[in-house]
Predict the structure.
Amino acid sequence: MILNAPFVKPSVLPGFRLTIAFTILYLTAIVLLPLGALLFRASSLGVHEIVALALDGRTLSALKLSFVTSFAAAAFNVPFGLLIAWVLVRYDFPGRRFFDAIIDLPFALPTAVAGIALTALYAPKGWIGSVAGLFGLKIAFTPIGVFLALVFVGLPFIVRTVQPVLAEVDRELEEAAATLGAGRLRTIASVVLPVLSPAILTGFALAFARAVGEYGSVIFIAGNIPYVSEIAPLLIVIKLEEFDYAGATAVAAIMLLVSFGTLLLINLIQARARARYGHV
Amino acid sequence: MELDIRNLTKTFGSTAALHGVDLKVASGELLALLGPSGSGKTTLLRCVAGLEIPSGGQILFGGEDASLKSVQERQIGFVFQHYALFKHLTIADNISYGLRVRPRRSRPSAAVIRDKVEELLSLIQLPGYGGRYPSQLSGGQRQRVALARALAVEPRVLLLDEPFGALDAKVRKELRLWLREFHDRTGHTTLFVTHDQEEALDLADRVVVMSEGRIEQEGSPEDIYDRPATPFVFDFIGESVRLDIRVDKGRPFVGQQEVSIPKLPPLLFDGPAKLYVRPEHVAFRRDGEGLWATVVSLHRSGSSRRIGFRADGTDVVIEALTPADREPPRIGDRAALEIRAAGLFSG
């Protein structure tokens, strides 16, 4: 029988068959089935139609806006999320627990609430928007607004994935580097960051994935001007409202493929790093 | 490079880890800092390295005050108990790390660095290991790499913090002999911290015994073992039994019997005292002069036998060590004990 496979090591806690069966069942029901339905739905369109839809100017610019701003927001969050994680882990200061709790707010807040709050702040008549307006900078209803909303929702992912790993970093490594003459920045770059890099990549991937799918907090501040600040998830909703189910599923399928490809790539990079350094 | 530590103090919050330690280390000396955990030996070592900032006192490297210098400026080599190798770097990159982080004008060329790495790899008897990663090496090999990494920067002083603490007994012993031989060849001024007395007595030119942030005694391994200066050192180093005795008119008494102990300085006090005796310094005979006692226990351990005697008229039990092949007495036998050496402290 295939489930008595030789790759299962004897253990005092057996249960491979039961757990693997449940895992497969669960993943199928929760993840694969809906995605399969989506692809099935999309396949009812011909290849020609999907390609035509993907190459449609409005779809292309929406997809481009979604992926580029998501990538930029996740990348922007890496250094600052890292800095926040560093401060929270390494220093004990009054109010540390408070700040630590605040990190999760963008995660826990209903996205629509975040969207309204951000719009109120960055709209041309908002506190920050009016100041930026003096310098001729328009934030809300432009890609910059989309970017800001995505930075907001992505921050907890970087901080929360890096924090536990940073707490476990062996201080002796930093001390060893210092005794060998390495300065502070050098020590961080050559000793601390390599240890953190798998966690940073994971945080980046999570923030990116969340940003690509983000809807509620973006649509208010984006203004949804076609070709300028219309994100792909919104395009899907618009197509659905126009009863263009095939078009909506086609855009969704394209997003799915790009997201899956990106996450796969990130996982491959991590697997390679793990194979090289080993778990010591 | 000689090292001069003057009146060094260190407090963590309200607890003092070092109470004014004075210590001189001669150039090329291999010195062991020995003590139980919490004795301040590691704190002292870390202060010398610059990894801890002392609360007071001075540290001089070759006559020059280094107290205010940063770790990076001190040019020391530090070896950690758990190796602290950079596991994302190859062995060669680990060893050359200290050379590669130098500012451009003092950094050796790539070829010089490569030669230096090769030289160090053969010095630590791991030639050809440069391309591997730390996770592919055994504990003893990793610690040798850590030593090579520390030596690559040509440190003025080599500091080792429990360097063999994480290794198993056999590797420990091998590496200890190797380090002694290595030191004789390279002659770095070396300070190493250990809680293992055997290691300290075996390896060091000079041993400094510490307790509760103070130096209890410093001297050659023979001095420390044969002539412990304080009750703490007697207790901590080697095996000994402590006897509660009494000094009367300058003569020591166990119960009602006077004991004669050779090589004891004149006793200038009367009253209760503590006598520290090592088992190997106790001999026994079936007749003659001595401290009369009764055999109360027999215990065989390996090649020797340990015999417990209770001195007449007391609860004091004195142990003697004899070869296992010598005919042992029986429980209840009477014997006269001769104490060949002992330490006596008032109180």
Notes: The longest helix of chain A spans residues 57-90. The interface with chain B takes residues 170, 172-173, 175-183, 186, 190-191, 194-195, 276-280 of chain A (CB under 8 Å). The CA atoms of residues 197 and 270 of chain A lie 9 Å apart.
